[in-house]
Every structure is written in structure tokens, then in C-alpha cells.
Amino acid sequence: EAGVVQSPRYKIIEKKQPVAFWCNPISGHNTLYWYLQNLGQGPELLIRYENEEAVDDSQLPKDRFSAERLKGVDSTLKIQPAELGDSAVYLCASSLGASGSYNEQFFGPGTRLTVL
Amino acid sequence: GENVEQHPSTLSVQEGDSAVIKCTYSDSASNYFPWYKQELGKGPQLIIDIRSNVGEKKDQRIAVTLNKTAKHFSLHITETQPEDSAVYFCAGTGGFKTIFGAGTRLFVKA
Fold this sequence. Notes:
The structure holds two protein chains of two kinds.
Chain A: E1 5-7, E2 10-13, E3 19-24, E4 31-37, E5 44-50, E6 53-56, E7 65-68, E8 75-79, E9 88-95, E10 106-107, E11 111-115
Parallel strand pairs in A: 2-11
Antiparallel strand pairs in A: 1-3, 3-8, 4-5, 4-9, 5-6, 7-8, 9-10, 9-11
Chain B: E1 4-7, E2 10-14, E3 19-25, E4 32-38, E5 45-51, E6 56-59, E7 62-67, E8 72-77, E9 86-94, E10 97-100, E11 104-109
Parallel strand pairs in B: 2-11
Antiparallel strand pairs in B: 1-3, 3-8, 4-5, 4-9, 6-7, 7-8, 9-10, 9-11
């Protein structure tokens, strides 16, 4: 069974440019998460989807970040415009049922973003 | 806000020795505590988890203990091997939110 797929794996852009990350969760997983991981830190939730609905986007900087999960399957996270401080690894994860207790989250390999 | 503190940030052990990583959480509503292992260039992978109604769980060389009263939980790795070298994250889940610790970088010296 394929795991969570993310692309691209690496992205280097100049500040003020737009960038987009794509995630395809494990088949059948209804819950999808986007996390931000700064160097030497644990993942921090940006947004959580239950099917196509964003149920928790409280930590998403909505002035420059946006996300969508059309048809409740794959998802795209966008930053426009990117800032130097956005350099980090962006992780996508999915879980089988409604998030909360006891649902193992499966992580993709992440996209490492460097903003110059 | 909710917080999970993890110690130590770096741990170096000799192959065959035991390694212990400790975490504390602040959210009393937390009732599920997963541990993840992250290797270089990869996403975190679940290695063991424990629910709040259990005090201890073991899976081969890995064990986790939970003290709900003190809000402490710990990961124990016995007979460490070089392939155990990685970054380990604890996490606390309450309701619909998972909070991760800052991670422990484990080095196992052959």
C-alpha cells in the first residue's frame, strides 16, 4: 500500500514568490493534516481537513497561506507571497477516521522549502 | 495554551545500553500519547502509543509509561542498536488536537 505522497520534495524560491505543495493521502483516509516543521522542532498543525471540510485552520496564517482539498482526496497548500521565515519542512499526514484519539497519523516525507 | 515538553534534546548512548526520553503535558484533556521516530529526510513514523487508561505498554525493545496524575510519559528503548539513531517525538492528543514535543536526537554509538 502506498503511503502519503508529497511533491515536490524540495523547493527553492526567492522571497515574494508564490509556491504550492501537493499531498495525496493514503487511500480511504478521510482526515488530512498539513504541518509546519521548523528545524529542530516538532510538527505544528497548520490545517486539518475532514473529507473536504477544513475543520481546524486556526493556526494557518490566512494573509498568505491557503489550502484546499477538493473532492476530499488530495490537497494543495499555497503560500503567496513567501517570506524568508517560511523556510521549513511542510509535512502532510492522513488518518483513517475522524481525528482525535486513537487515530494513527501517517506522515509523508515532507517538502523542504527554502526562501532566499 | 497546550504544551508538551520533551527532555533531553540530545541523547548519546553506547550500543546495547538503554535510552529514556521523558515528556510532560499540560492539557488535562489529553488522552492519547503517540511516539514518533523521524529519520533524516523522512516524515515521522509512529513507533508506539499509549492511551490514558493504560499505565504501561511494551513492544519488543520499546516501552512507554504514563503517569496521568503527574502528566508525565516516557519512552524506554532497551538494547539500543545503531539503527535506533534518529529524532524521537512525543505527542499528546486531546479532543481533536495533537501537540508534539520538540524532539530528542538519539545517537547510538557502535
